Automatic annotation (TrEMBL):
Name of the molecule in the record: Altered inheritance of mitochondria protein 41
Pfam families: YqeY
Upper taxonomic lineage: Eukaryota, Fungi, Dikarya, Basidiomycota, Agaricomycotina
Keywords: Mitochondrion
Recorded GO MF terms: carbon-nitrogen ligase activity, with glutamine as amido-N-donor
PANTHER family in the record: ALTERED INHERITANCE OF MITOCHONDRIA PROTEIN 41, MITOCHONDRIAL (PTHR28055:SF1)
Organism: Phanerochaete carnosa (strain HHB-10118-sp) (White-rot fungus)
Family of this protein: Belongs to the AIM41 family.
Protein's cellular compartments: Mitochondrion
Keyword Signal part of the UniProt annotation: no
SUPFAM superfamilies in the cross-refs: GatB/YqeY motif
CC terms in the record's Gene Ontology section: mitochondrion
Gene3D superfamilies: Uncharacterised protein YqeY/AIM41 PF09424, N-terminal domain
Alphabetical list of InterPro entries matching this protein: Asn/Gln_tRNA_amidoTrase-B-like, YqeY/Aim41, YqeY/Aim41_N
Amino acid sequence: MLRIAHRLRAPTRLSAMRGMRYTTAAPDDIRKRLTDELKTAMKAKDAFTSTTIRSVLAEVYSADKLQAQPLPGGGVVSILRKAMTRRADAAAEFDKAARPDLAEKERREADVLQAFVPPLLAPAEIDRRLQEVFAELQPAPGDKKAMGQVFKAFYARVDRSAVDTDLVKKRAEALLAAA
């Protein structure tokens, strides 16, 4: 009986880790915003917002562990966009299943995450940058290898998380066909 009481009073590994920070490098702006908003939501006792942000941060920390170094800001934004897409898809499925309550919950979660995602690059800006790449590389029409070089040069200039990749692919294919 005495041993049990002693174990309950002894500091546990979990209690020792509570004060530790999860990030090991200089915090990126988006990561800092997420953690700051999590703290604010927890202080306000907003369980919905804090749970939503915690789920995304768990994905970020999991991705950090898979790499040798912490995920850059663009990677965190990519995780946020994927989480928003999953929630939008889930809301659509709940609507099909006549569960508007669950669909609304998923939409609210997507709205919470939307506040952290920077806007995508405008299509006109994508076109301008693609035209710069095409002018520089001068690919032959219909050359599939040239398309890979175009994408490589484009994404060297533009962060992948800042653009809609499907739109970039369509615009690049159209420019290559017209070249």
